[in-house]
Design brief:
alpha/beta, UDP-n-acetylglucosamine1-carboxyvinyl-transferase, Chain, 2 domains, 4-stranded mixed sheet
């Protein structure tokens, strides 16, 4: 599907969708708790639907309530078919660990994009605590023999994916022996690990974590059923907030201003770029102003790279983003995708392995390939609104985390036509 975007005046108030990261974490904890939990205000999207389907195949009953999911967990069964995780990295990585608790053998498969993303370090870490598992040369599919988790000590790098650490944390309380997780390198995306610890605590599980999140100790204990509230998603909110900063005036509601979510940093980054920001209870308002270049380390909030990169394209001067190497291992190589899209729109970009330099200017309309990456599609819609005459190829990929995105953009005044209809 193509999105045709014309130059538009942006104005309005929107509600941030629920957090994908917290929805997935809530589902996993509820699945591990014996009894029925409520996930309140969950996000319905491709990634969370993948998790629901996989959990259902191992015996977790998930029912739709009024703005809630009722999850009956704690009693797993052997799946009668492969566990297809789509392109949801969180689902694949979390469930690879969870399958060590399931009777029988589980085979986890992935979509084309996710099949190119590494899972080898998690498989090796699981082996250290007794799990009988294997991957296809470090990538999906992954096969896990259930009931093989023993516990003890496992060591893995902290600078590849925080999801590997979270996956181990989820199963640690259910290991027969106390489990210790040690990181051989400093962790990146620390806020996501903290989100996991917070979610586990909501379900009655306590973890001893070192101050720098380099080591964790988890005693044997049980998850308790809970009512779990999912807050708004700062990652998804970054796009309408950036639209307000670049081309109008926007208010985004349903945001926890004290959230653990890493992408809450968008408020700080927009302020640094000169945007007018106001906060009030659960809302953030942004008003357009001339944008200044930005130099910042994105290692803890790497998903914001496409958002701030397109803003940098409309700012005066040179912006520099560091700590971005892990962005190459997302749904697309986001460093390459950002560079290609910006150059198509007339913006000069240079890159190093872990750095990106963007010379701000006057973006012009162009056809941009989203690479089937939801964050690339949504970010370049911002420049499309500013420049006009822009086409986003593969526009349907936003359903991964923000299915209503194009309708939301239209509600704010964005002139968008999908597939020319």
């Amino acid at each position: 599907m193509r999105a045709f975007i014309s130059k538009s005046a942006i104005h309005g108030a929107v509600k941030a969708p629920s957090s994908k990261s917290y929805t997935l974490r809530g589902l996993i904890c509820a699945a591990l708790a014996e009894g029925t939990s409520e996930i309140l205000g969950p996000l319905p999207a491709d990634d969370t639907e993948a998790a629901r389907e996989v959990l259902g195949k191992i015996g977790v009953l998930i029912e739709d309530g009024k703005d809630a999911w009722l999850v009956s967990g704690g009693r797993f069964k052997t799946p009668n078919s492969d566990l297809y995780c789509g392109d949801s990295a969180g689902t694949l990585r979390f469930m690879t660990a969870v399958c060590s608790l399931v009777p029988g053998t589980c085979r986890l498969t992935a979509g084309p994009s996710l099949s190119k993303r590494p899972i080898g370090p998690l498989v090796e870490a699981l082996k250290q605590v007794g799990v009988n598992c294997k991957s296809d040369s470090g990538f999906a599919p992954v096969t896990v023999e259930g009931k093989s988790l023993k516990g003890g000590v496992t060591v893995l790098p902290g600078n590849i994916s925080s999801q590997f650490v979270s996956a181990l944390l989820f199963i640690a309380p259910l290991a027969p022996r106390e489990m210790a997780i040690k990181l051989s390198t400093p962790p990146e995306s620390k806020p996501y690990v903290m989100m996991t610890l917070d979610c586990m605590q909501s379900f009655g599980v306590k973890v001893k974590a070192s101050a720098g999140l380099r080591s964790f100790k988890v005693a044997r204990q049980s998850y308790k059923p809970a009512k779990y509230n999912v807050e708004g998603d700062w990652s998804s909110a970054s796009y309408p907030l950036a639209l307000g900063a670049a081309g109008g005036e926007v208010q985004v509601n349903n945001l926890n201003l004290h959230s653990r979510q890493a992408d809450r940093a968008i408020v700080y980054l927009l302020k640094k770029m000169g945007a007018h920001i106001q906060t009030d209870h659960d809302a953030v308002s942004v008003k357009m102003s001339p944008l200044k270049p930005l130099r910042t380390d994105l290692s803890d909030c790497i998903d914001l790279l496409p958002t701030v990169a397109v803003l940098a394209a409309a700012a005066g001067g040179v912006s520099e983003f560091s700590g971005i190497s892990r962005a190459r291992l997302k749904e697309s190589d986001r460093v390459a995708a950002v560079k290609e899209g910006l150059e198509r729109m007339g913006i000069h970009v240079s890159e190093g392995r872990d750095r990106l330099f963007i010379m701000g200017g006057r973006p012009r309309g162009a056809a941009v390939d989203s690479k089937n990456d939801h964050r690339i599609a949504m970010a370049f819609s911002i420049l499309g609104v500013l420049a006009g005459d822009t086409i986003i190829e593969g526009a349907e990929c936003v359903s991964k985390t923000y299915p209503e995105f194009w309708d939301v953009l239209k509600s704010m005044g964005g002139e968008v036509t999908l597939d020319g209809k």
